[in-house]
Amino acid sequence: MKVKIDEIRNMSAIEREKKLSDLRNELFKLHSSNAMGGTLTDPTKIRQIKRAVARILTVQNELKEI
C-alpha cells in the first residue's frame, strides 16, 4: 500500500480525493476489525495507510498555498 510522493503529485485533485477516501475507508475497516477482537494479517498495514494519508494531505496543503 505504499504510495510514493511523486505518484501523488502527478495525480489530479479528483484522483487524490478518491485515493484519500479509499485509504480512510480501508483504515476504518482495519481499526474496526482489530477493535472487535480480530487479528490483523499484516499489522504494519495500518502504519502504511496512515503515512499514505499524511502524504496526500501534505501535497494537498502544499498546493493550496500556491
From TrEMBL:
Pfam families: Ribosomal_L29. This is Large ribosomal subunit protein uL29. It comes from Candidatus Lokiarchaeum ossiferum. Signal peptide: none annotated. The keyword Ribonucleoprotein applies. Keywords: Ribonucleoprotein, Ribosomal protein. One of its GO terms (cellular component) is ribosome. InterPro entries: Ribosomal_uL29, Ribosomal_uL29_sf.
